[in-house]
Each structure stands twice: as C-alpha cells, then as structure tokens.
Amino acid sequence: YGAKIRAPHALVMTFLFKSGSLREKLRSIAQATYAHSRNLACFVFTYKGLLAAQARLQGKKIPFHSFLAACIGGWLVFGDNNPINSQIIMYLLSRVLFGLSRLAVQKGYIPQPRQDPFPLLAALVWGTVLWLFECHRETLQPSLQSSMTYLYEDSEVWHDLSDFLIYNKRTDNK
C-alpha cells in the first residue's frame, strides 16, 4: 500500500521540483517509496501486535487498546521528524480534524451547522496558507513551499508552452 501511494507522488514531485540526473531522481523516488512502505508496514505490525498483546493480557479487547497501541506505534515508527513522516502525519491530521468535528456534531457537543461550513473553512485555509507563504514562508513544510513557489512566483516568468507543460524555471539564458 505504501508503494502504491508513495511511488506516483514521489515520481511527480521529483520530476517537478528536484534537479539532478535521471539516476539521482530515480534513486530519490525509490528511497521515498521504500521509506513510506517500510514505515507503514512497521506501524501495522507494531499496532496489530500491541492490540493482540493487550487483548491477551486483559482477556478481552477494549476501545482504549487501539488508542494506546497506535500512540506507541506512532511514537516508535513515525516519531522521527523527516519529510516522509511529516507528510504522513499532516495527511492524517487533516482527516482527524474533520473526523473529530463530525464526531462532535454527532455526539451533540456542537450543534449541527445550519449551512455547510466548508466554504468558510476553504476560505480560512487558503487565506492562512497564502499569508504564511507571503509573510512567514519558512514556517511551511518544504514541499508546500516548493509547490507555492512554483504556482505563485515561477509562474510570473513565461518563455513558451514548455514552461506550462514541463517546468517554468530555466537554467539557460533563453
């Protein structure tokens, strides 16, 4: 699963934003794919093992077991702050926040919104990320910085159609 997810992403991001030889790019793609796959496999093994151990020790499975097993697995496997782990954690965080907000409505902790709050969320997220990009760029994750630089700065220079299709930053003086 990790290879299925990471390989296409690494391929696109590498060819869009990284310089170097074809061999270096392919090596980078393979390393990112391997790291993502290995970490997911290690996490699943750790999580499932800890779940089984807790159920065996307590004689039954209880809901807290999944939380504790995942916390330990997350610490052990994803605790190293590197680009692969960082991206996985950011991906999960966004989905956790959505899930928690839906759960809060479901449980009655917050009222059901009268209208869809998504347009407001979209506005706040985009407003905040572009403010951070313009005023505090160093606080953003490096691949997000690269994407935003490509979209909002590199796009101000136009040579020909290859800028749009391949990459719009030339090293030669055309």
Brief overview:
This protein is mostly helical and about 170 residues long. About 75% of the residues lie in helices and about 0% in strands. The longest helix has about 35 residues, at about 20-60.
Q: Helix and strand layout, with pairings?
A:
Layout: H1 2-17, H2 22-58, H3 63-78, H4 83-106, H5 118-135, H6 142-152, H7 161-165
Helix pairs in contact: 1-2, 2-3
Strand content: under 5%
Give the total of beta strands.
0
Count of helix runs: 7
Briefly note the structural class of the backbone: mainly alpha
Q: Report the radius of gyration as a whole number of Å.
A: 21 Å
How do the SSEs run, as a string of H and E?
HHHHHHH
Measured as a percent range, the helix fraction is over 70%
Q: How many structural domains in the coordinates?
A: 3
- Average of the residue pLDDT scores: 88
Q: What's the end-to-end separation, in Å?
A: 43 Å
- Shape verdict: flat
Largest sheet: none
Which residues sit in consecutive blocks of at least 5 with pLDDT less than 50?
none
